[in-house]
Amino acid sequence: MTHYASGDISSAPLVIKLPNIGRWYIAIEILNKTQMRNTTAPMLDTICFSFDWQVTGCLNGKTGTDCLWEAYVLQRVPKRNPSVPFESYYVPTDERALLEYSHFSLEKFLTNSSFEQFAWTYFFLDVPQGSAGALIHVQLKSDKELNYELYSKYGGLPSNDSWDYYASRTSSSNSSVFYSLQNSTDSDMDLSIFYAKEGTWCFGVKHPNYTSNSQTYMSISLQGCHRNCNQKGVCHASVDESGLTFYSFCTCDRDHGGFDCSDELVSPNGHIRQSVFLIASNAAAILPAFWALRQK
């Protein structure tokens, strides 16, 4: 039997920390039941019990098991002249961020707490229906060395022990084919989640619990083609057979291939060699043809 959590609720309550968003099913199984039968006739069992449950939440934009960390809901802003219908970017619904810009200052939103060495700040966003073929692109750019860790999880709060994707300046969960960490440096983190599920995603930034004088900009966007086909092709949009979900793909130029046109098929030197061989083969074919005409 597959289950998320279990426990003996007769002795202590069952507590599920950081539950995922969505519908939950709770099953109660009676164990160690003794039955006294004085007759051979069938006897109906009657079991009485009480069951109380509650869902606790944090107020005033806080989250976490102790309601210590800041949490923000990001607003999706459609891009102007998008290459695919669902392209957009996300910004906090707060006066500290402007809807006109696709990035925002991260330090303005970080949790300021003195309880632990590291603090968490969470950002929630929704991937709309029909855009499951899109990718989530997240970028951090700082004027100093990045000292942040980024965790992401679908449908719930990420933590040290529970996350779908993870990235830092020195390591990442890049073993998944649906995740890419590219062109990252000491002050720049650039990652993509391919074919993101429709629904609620949460990105958690784990950061030192002290005030930093660095300036870091964060951008989160919903894109069609990875890295815009690396400027080596054209991004196209289409719909699946159901007509309900958009997806995008790259049409690469003749020199490149791969899903994002990042694979070089023929180098510039290869083109030169191909041209030389073509000219030489044509020249080699002309001489026999000319000799045959002279013989006639």
UniProtKB/TrEMBL annotation:
GO CC terms of this entry: plasma membrane
**Location in or out of the cell:** Cell membrane
Q: Which family, according to the similarity comment?
A: Belongs to the TMEM8 family.
What is the official name of this protein in its record?
Answer: EGF-like domain-containing protein
Q: Does the keyword Lipid metabolism apply?
A: no
Q: Which residues form the EGF-like domain?
A: 250-261
What is the superkingdom listed in this entry's lineage? Eukaryota
Keywords from the UniProt entry: Cell membrane, Membrane, Transmembrane, Transmembrane helix
Source species: Aegilops tauschii subsp. strangulata
The record's listing under InterPro entries reads: EGF (IPR000742), NGX6/PGAP6/MYMK (IPR021910)
Signal peptide residue numbers? none
Membrane topology, as annotated: Multi-pass membrane protein
